[in-house]
Amino acid sequence: MRVVVGADVGGTKLAVRVAPLGAQPGTEPGMEPGIEPGTGQDPAYTDHLLAADGWEASPVDTAAGWLLERLARVVPQGAGIAAVGIGAQGCDTQHHCAELAAAVEKSGVPAVVVNDAALLVPAAGLDAGIGVVAGTGSIAVAADAGGEVLFAGGWGWVLGDEGGAPAIVRDAVRAALAAYDAGSADDGLLAALLGHFAAPDPQTLARIVNDEPTPGNWGPAAPAVFRAADAGSALAAGVIEGAARELELLVSRVVGRGAVGDTVVAAGSVVVRQPRLAGAFRARLALTQPQLTLRLLDVPPVAGALALARARLRTS
Questions:
Q1: Three-class SS string for the chain?
Q2: Would the pLDDT of 24 be above 70?
Q3: Does the global pTM surpass 0.90?
């Protein structure tokens, strides 16, 4: 038995999709409906979720070993991998992706590696477009007419990741504390942040946020910012509008460098789960890039990795 495998390596989780070599692509999510898990029939693929503990995209030989060891855990015993498609966080240049693919292929498995954001367009069933992730971090990925991969953003939460959850919380805390310093009445944002962080006062809030400046501490407070905006906080609404503007800038930067496609495919917990951000992002694109349509990805990005594996198999 031979299988094709897709892998989506994120900061905390590794999603893997395994399909028998003869399974029809039409049974994959996002394409024509086929046999689905839970219907009493054998599914055309199986999904697996593993912890991404210890994942580092460099050095590539170590990264390849890390990936292959975990793929071996979920591939059926005795099955051979015909091809693997990998979307990897931390592979932020075309050269790096090619090096990691070559390292995986040393095992005899044909491979293609892309940045994890580059899975979004094939997951949506498209040949071209712009992928945008807004979750823990933010990045835009596309390709030009010559096939060169274009990146914008993805610099990490310390240097940017505008539009991601930690950046939204950082900006919200700044806005709330600045208003407090100015003697303005709380419009609901400060109270929302104090409540999330269980802080009795603004001074304690500042200490809690500053003492642990990590995505794990900041990111989970993002829903509190959206709730404050929905309750009428102008400060929170302004922060979210700013995040949408930054996401639009990522798209405009790759468009300016020749990105092809007429669809922006967005994924990530913040933009997918928060209609206010998605709506503001869509409105910004309508103003600055009216030729583009925003589509929120409604299937797991790992579906794109499996599509890339099938494409790699056709060229091997």
A1: CEEEEEEEECCCEEEEEEEECCCCHHHCCCCCCCCCCCCCCCCCCEEEEEECCCCCCCCHHHHHHHHHHHHHHHCCCCCEEEEEEEEECCCCCHHHHHHHHHHHHCCCCCEEEEEHHHHHHHHCCCCCCEEEEECCCEEEEEECCCCCEEEEECCCCCCCCCCCHHHHHHHHHHHHHHHHHCCCCCCCHHHHHHHHHCCCCHHHHHHHHHHCCCHHHHHHHHHHHHHHHHCCCHHHHHHHHHHHHHHHHHHHHHHHCCCCCCEEEEECHHHHHCHHHHHHHHHHHHHHCCCCEEEECCCCCHHHHHHHHHHHHHHC
A2: no
A3: no
